[in-house]
Amino acid sequence: MKKYLLHLIVLLMVQQAATQTPFSRYPVYTGSDLGLQYGERESVFRIWSPTATAAQLQLYREGWGGDSYTVVPMESSVQGTWVAKVKGNLKNVFYTVRVQINGQWSDAVTDPYARAAGINGKRALVLDLKDTNPPGWERDISPAFSATNQPTDAIVYEMHIRDATIHSSSGVQQKGTFAGLAELNTRNAAGETTGLSHLKEMGVTHIHLLPFYDYNSVDETQTGQYNWGYDPVNYNVPEGSYSTNAADGLTRIRELKQMIQTFHASGLRVVMDVVYNHTALLDKSNFNQLVPGYYYRQKADGSFSDATACGNETASERPMFRKFMLESVLYWVKEYHIDGFRFDLMGVHDIETMNLIADTLHKIKPDILLYGEGWTAGESPLPESERAVKKNAHLLKGIAVFSDDIRDGIKGSVFNIADRGFATGKTANTESIKFGVVAACAHPQVHMDAVNYSKVPYAKSPAQVISYCECHDNNILWDKIALSFPEADEATRVRMQQLAYTIVLTSQGISFLHAGSEFLRSKKGEENSYNKGDSINAIDWQLKTIHKPVWRYVQSLIRLRKAHPAFRMRTAEAIARHLRFAENLPAGVVAYTLDGAAVGDAWKQVWVAYNGTATDQWLPMERGGWKAALEQGLQWQEGKVRVPAWGSLILYRE
Ligand code: CA
Which residues, chain by chain, have CB under 5 Å from ion ligand 1? Predict the structure, then answer.
């Protein structure tokens, strides 16, 4: 008995050691004034570094090169913080901080809470944020995106800032910048709108911009460099290479605000792509120099874990990183009027942190749009049950996850170039399309055992699911279709592309599109273009003229979705009750009826059919009163209606 008890005690101690790190003993700072508090007569700097025995603030005249002109010792303060108060007006002075731990001085690094920085983000900048507001900024408001601004009313369009305008065909003056994307009435040589005016013309509601916080991979002293930017350095500072003057820390802030202001005035909301799951640097990051180890997860052997496949993973469950994430997103919403966040590799973050973020943001902006990737890129030491992965989506409050089920259901696996999807003739994906149509909610007619990835419905509401078929990652849709179906002629591949977009824009959930695919943008077969430069990534606006019928078709789908709440049901219960699939159809064909009258739609009934096969399909349908929703030719024959090969049909009754 004694031996058993001893075993039990040892076991409990081991378990406690596994869940408790030395970091749990670090004091938590509960104030909200970390970083710089600027004043005309005095500026106050506060950092958190609980194991330091000394700390210094270094001041510089320049953002790059030269030595500090003064070094200010920081005083030990409450809850592990260090404070320096400096008299005088420090506007336009650059600064770094360093700490002494175990007798060693750290590198001089930017304050993680920095809001402005010099070139390449090496030194933070003292500023009065009011100086960065463009005229009229205090009157800037986020436009409504529907009558009620429900998440399922959003049609998100994902785009990279440089890609949008850098091509010679864009007609934009300040190519590749925040300012360039704020130019209105720009046109290609044939007179079609480009850039921001194109987005207005398409009618989407939210523009999701790839990372525009300060990232590492582009040297801001150079021009012509390219990267997507998933390698954060200063989370609360805009990226300098999108500015017309990266050396001046205020210009990038002002130009980003001007861009957001112009988007808002154009009826568009702005979603920010955020990457709190890892940092570009590890040992040398500002976080790790100030508090070694604390902000990152470790494996059992003490080495850094890497669930992001980017060299490290942050530890959102530790209070001071949770606090950092929360205060960072709050800052972007309050200071820049951001309308939504896309969380990169959200499956790395813990559910408690994500729900805290969602609750807090919804209190200050009830219609903010939050979604993320419900997966990781590797193993994490934090148990999966505690992380914001797709299968835990039902535990998230007001945060959606990307549905890879419908994405790959439509076009085939992103990890296997040869694999086809429903829109390219893989009839085995039929049930995955049905699961996508109901936005991963429970539905009595969806047979989960035949769905490609998920075996249980993971959403409790369609607002928890992003319905899409592609994003910046992996082959762009037009290339994927060509690579997986090389024998199809161009006219057929256009039909497949349009079928894919029809499925996305008629499915329940939150619609999500990738820039340029509406006019058959290609990346020349490049699967991972994150650093492949403008020649692969730039959006060629001449395609808009060449493929006008395709984007006009996508535009008509967007118009249809916005006009008809039947495609945007708000609850899983409504979908289960008011969306009825036709039974006993051939594999490769999906058809369903939406009860428009029950969900407040002017159309009493809507009938949608997708045909992912190479032959026309004649589906049973009574002729009475049905009209085609889009300009699609209607053919009837003996109580059946024709759904064309690689095509769709949308009918309605008033
Ligand atoms: Ca940068």
Answer: 214
SS3 category, 461: coil
What the block records as the tokens of 299 is 């494996």
Q: Which residue do the tokens 């992380």 mark?
A: 387
Q: How far apart are CA 426 and CA 419, in angstroms?
A: 8
Token output for 598: 């029950």
Compute, in angstroms, the gap from residue 250 CA to the centroid of ligand 1.
14
What torsion, rounded to 10 degrees, do the Cα atoms 639, 643, 648, 652 define? -20
Cα 95 to ligand 1 centroid, rounded to whole Å: 17
Which of the four pLDDT bands, split at 50, 70 and 90, describes residue 340? very high
Euclidean distance between CA atoms 322 and 306, whole angstroms: 18
CA distance 96 to 249: 15
What pTM value is reported for the model? 0.96
CA of 297 relative to ligand 1 center, distance in Å: 25
Instruction: Check if the beta carbon of residue 189 is closer than 8 Å to that of residue 231.
Output: no
| Cα(45)–Cα(36) distance, integer angstroms | 5
| Owner of token pair 């699939």 | 581
User: pLDDT-derived band of residue 18, with 50, 70 and 90 as boundaries?
Assistant: very low
- DSSP label at residue 571: -
Closest to 48 measured CA to CA, from 90, 107, 102, 97: 97
Ligand 1 mean position, distance from CA 117 (Å): 9
Catalytic residue IDs: 344, 373
